[in-house]
Design a protein that fits this description.
Layout: H1 2-16, H2 20-24, E1 31-34, E2 37-43, E3 49-54, E4 56-57, H3 58-64, H4 76-79, E5 88-94, H5 98-101, E6 105-110, E7 117-121, E8 124-129, E9 136-139, E10 149-155, H6 158-168, E11 199-201, E12 204-206, E13 211-212, E14 216-221, E15 224-236, E16 241-252, E17 256-264, E18 269-277, E19 280-289, E20 310-318, E21 321-330, E22 335-338, E23 341-342, E24 345-348, E25 351-354, E26 357-359, E27 361-366, H7 378-390, E28 395-398, H8 407-416, E29 419-423, H9 435-452, E30 458-462, H10 467-472, H11 483-505, E31 511-512, H12 520-524, E32 540-542, E33 561-564, H13 572-575, H14 589-593, H15 600-609, H16 620-648, E34 653-654, E35 657-658, E36 662-665, H17 688-696, E37 700-707, E38 710-717, E39 723-733, E40 741-744, E41 748-750, E42 754-762, H18 763-769, E43 778-785, E44 791-799, E45 815-821, E46 824-830, E47 835-841, E48 847-849, E49 854-856, E50 860-867, H19 873-879, E51 881-883
Parallel strand pairs: 27-28, 27-36, 28-29, 29-30, 30-31, 32-33
Antiparallel strand pairs: 1-14, 2-3, 2-5, 4-13, 5-10, 6-9, 6-14, 7-8, 7-10, 11-12, 15-16, 16-19, 17-18, 17-20, 20-21, 22-25, 23-24, 25-26, 34-35, 37-38, 38-42, 39-40, 39-41, 39-43, 43-44, 45-46, 46-50, 47-49, 47-51, 48-50
Helix pairs in contact: 7-8, 9-11, 15-16, 16-17
The chain binds 2-acetamido-2-deoxy-beta-D-glucopyranose (7 copies).
One 2-acetamido-2-deoxy-beta-D-glucopyranose binds at residues 236, 238-239.
Amino acid sequence: MEQCVKYFCCALLWLFFGDVSGLSSLTEQPVELSLSGKWRLSNSNGSLSLPAEVPGCVHSALQQQGHIPNPYFRFNDVSYRWIALDNWTYTTMFTVSTQLRLKQKVLLVFDGVDTVASISLNGVIVAKTDNMFRRYDLSVRDLLKDGDNMLEVSLLSPVIFASERRKAHSSYRVPPECPPDVQKGECHVNFIRKEQSSFSWDWGPSFPTMGLWKGVRLEAFDVLQLVQLSSLPLYNSSCSQWRLEIEFIVDAAQTKYGQVTISIPEVDSKQTYKTQFLQGKKKYNFTLHVNKNSQLKLWWPNGHGDQPFYHLTVRGFQDGFLILNTESKVFFRTVELIQEPIIGSPGLSFYFRINGKPVFLKGSNWIPAHSFQDQVTPDVLRNLLQSAVDANMNALRVWGGGVYEQDLFYDLCDEMGIMVWQDFMFACAMYPTEDDFIQTVREEVIQQVQRLKSHPSIIIWSGNNENEAALATDWFNIPASQRPTYIKDYLELYVNNIRLIVQEKDKSRPFLVSSPTNGAESEHEGWVAANPYDPHYGDVHFYSYVLDCWDWKTFPRTRFASEYGFQSWPSFSTLQPVSIKEDWSYDSHFTSHRQHHEGGNQQMLLQAALHFNLPNSTDPLKRFTDTLYVTQVMQAQCVKTQTEFYRRSQSEIIDGKGHTMGALYWQLNDIWQAPSWSSIEFGGKWKMLHNFAQNFFASVLPVGFEEDDTLFVYAVSDLSHDLKLRAAVTVYSWTDLDPVCTLTSPLLPVPGGAAVAVFKQTVTALLAGCGRCTRLSCLLTFHLEDSSGDRQGPSNHHFLCSPKHAQGLQKPNITAKVQEEKTGFTVALHSAAVAPFVWLDVGNIPGRFSSNGFLMVSRNKTVDFAAWRPTSVAELSRSLTITSLTDVY
Ligand SMILES: *[C@@H]1O[C@H](CO)[C@@H](O)[C@H](O)[C@H]1NC(C)=O
Ligand SMILES: *[C@@H]1O[C@H](CO)[C@@H](O)[C@H](O)[C@H]1NC(C)=O
Ligand SMILES: *[C@@H]1O[C@H](CO)[C@@H](O)[C@H](O)[C@H]1NC(C)=O
Ligand SMILES: *[C@@H]1O[C@H](CO)[C@@H](O)[C@H](O)[C@H]1NC(C)=O
Ligand SMILES: *[C@@H]1O[C@H](CO)[C@@H](O)[C@H](O)[C@H]1NC(C)=O
Ligand SMILES: *[C@@H]1O[C@H](CO)[C@@H](O)[C@H](O)[C@H]1NC(C)=O
Ligand SMILES: *[C@@H]1O[C@H](CO)[C@@H](O)[C@H](O)[C@H]1NC(C)=O
């Protein structure tokens, strides 16, 4: 049979590929007319009528036309609440060419409608929409006319819609009914298929957007039109062969016979199929067996190898005419989620194997990069994802309360080697399961899986964010008698619908029902485990703001940490454009307004005060900016401690727990200028945490910690090869920039993908051996080196006491000289004393320092600054501020 197919393929080649360029001139040319661009927008009583950009949303249009100021300014999230309570209509007039009108079939395509709308063309209603995450293809040929055509999209307030749906669902409540007051948000977001955080979140404002958030166009054709092409590489390990499952959705004007040729020329693989294209929109699937002799180059996560791809060519012929001709990238990699018994530990492992190799996931969680998705430009995405890669991350979780990201996001992740944990868009709530709700979700899931499954970056699908935990640990005070109803709804949505669709459509990657979950154990317990946070199984989300974050014993030694974190404030330069002078104190109305997490501002200070003196300057502005700084120091140090704990736990089982294989802190990015758990501020500026992440996610990392009085240094390696390393521990006095003494451990083997203790000594002995040192007067730095004395990985530090108790810690009086070199700007620093958490800030000059937030234990240090817009030595020198721990009190 195989032979037969191959022969047939060659015959076709001769027939039709003899002169492809000649043939292509006969190809049908579908006509496309973009309807994106300027539309008109008006509100329900007609008091407002304005031009509006499509793709776009009502808020963006109102701002762009000067009807409202920046919605992010001060309290505008509340002042402009009325926008989402009104109904809005988008209209456009367009003419179509005769050529287009004469085509057999004309589709009106909406790539994304936000959200509840009635769409009419020349006065005839052609669709009603209810789901932001679906694409709508409407057949409209017979409605088009000569001259002007009018397209109208009437949007219903999403807030009103959600509340109406809640009323219609009268038999039982579907919690949470409303967000906590501190979020100043809207209610019942779980009743509408829309970005869940758009009704407010604990890090974001309530801006329930409305609009056409993606492109609109007409597609006209005579024979057929390719709607979507996806390819799924599958590896058969028993015969060591790759095959590519190719699926396309084709809309055909009439039923026709044809042939389809699929090939990857680079690996000399080609196959041809005879196909009957049925009239209408249908799905077709084909298999391409990749030539067994070709040495395929595999796609690897960042830090583990390159991200090569091949060109997949698909051509369709009918009666000698080329009717389909498309090319796409195809990447080869395998992913397995391993959940199996571990010796010496109850429970199951939970880790990812990429191309057969266990990979520790290092990274963070992704939230929507803007309340108004039309303002998430390619530059914004590129900058954030490059920041992730530059911080040595290899994974991001696209969190379930946001949006399925735009294509470019996943293209960039493919290119950069960022593994994506992709949630379905359900978060922190119960959901209704009426028929129409399930139907629209099913279509959403089918479309999104189809759209995204060709991306190698996506390594797992996950049904929802925290909804198993919400049920299991009863977040919503559901009476025991009613629990079965909610369990039934839960199973209906995630297990019987989403899971089954995903498993049918995508056999190339694992599916989890929720996060956190116990995975296989949750399934065993009927999909809702008694304790989804069990560290012996699956992934864990863990937050504590009260416990001392410097004490690693407070962290669960989980198999996989998919969420954990601490809040901090963004820098002053990020807050300044959205605030005024009276807002600039830690107890201002503005400061509490922007904090959407109950008690958050106080928690940050309490956590910081455990180890640092809080700012007490008599200058109110300095005191405010110093406080912003201290929250960032606290956050950076807390997340560092926790992440290092996870990385060093990867090779150990202690008290039955360990083999941690993932650390994704909450959260990478921000949606606006406000306090949050992010490591990157709105606008792209790195917080101190992101600079720390660059170190704590390094491929080779020394981790220092104490257990009882013993100091350990672990060598953690994500490399593929083995190393021989020793730790060099240097003791400094807080009073002196010259080291007190240095201790070195013997060389020890450090296998690739392991964490090994390379240094162990009691602190008492270490300090005694070093002379004039006590816990209060000295601190430690350490690094790893190989047999030739070359440093491997960054250097690290360990404090023997809280800096607020450190004896002899002085004001370092750091001076700086900005210079311009061929390669860019440099800042030469000179310090008079040991300086912890040295922070360089050039205000609103956008860019990035090569190192920041560091411990300065040398007199001199030079840091580079990469500016993202033209600037000068003079401007930088003027803007530069330097803060270290002792400068704030
Ligand atoms: C029309 O609607 C706007 C926005 O909701 C409202 O401010 C205005 O008062 C309304 N005008 C009239 C005449 O009802
Ligand atoms: C928006 O439309 C809904 C449904 O037609 C209606 O109930 C509501 O009153 C409208 N809102 C405004 C402000 O006109
Ligand atoms: C893998 O290859 C073997 C040997 O050719 C075959 O028997 C088996 O069915 C294949 N498995 C899959 C999933 O295609
Ligand atoms: C198409 O998909 C079906 C169902 O998954 C499968 O049985 C069939 O073999 C596929 N056809 C080709 C040509 O791959
Ligand atoms: C920094 O400057 C202050 C004020 O001039 C001085 O008292 C202090 O000793 C200086 N610090 C160091 C480490 O020299
Ligand atoms: C350190 O910096 C100071 C002040 O900029 C300079 O005078 C000195 O030469 C530098 N020392 C070294 C070793 O570079
Ligand atoms: C600020 O606190 C420090 C450390 O507790 C103290 O030495 C200093 O006098 C205080 N300054 C003011 C202005 O209160």
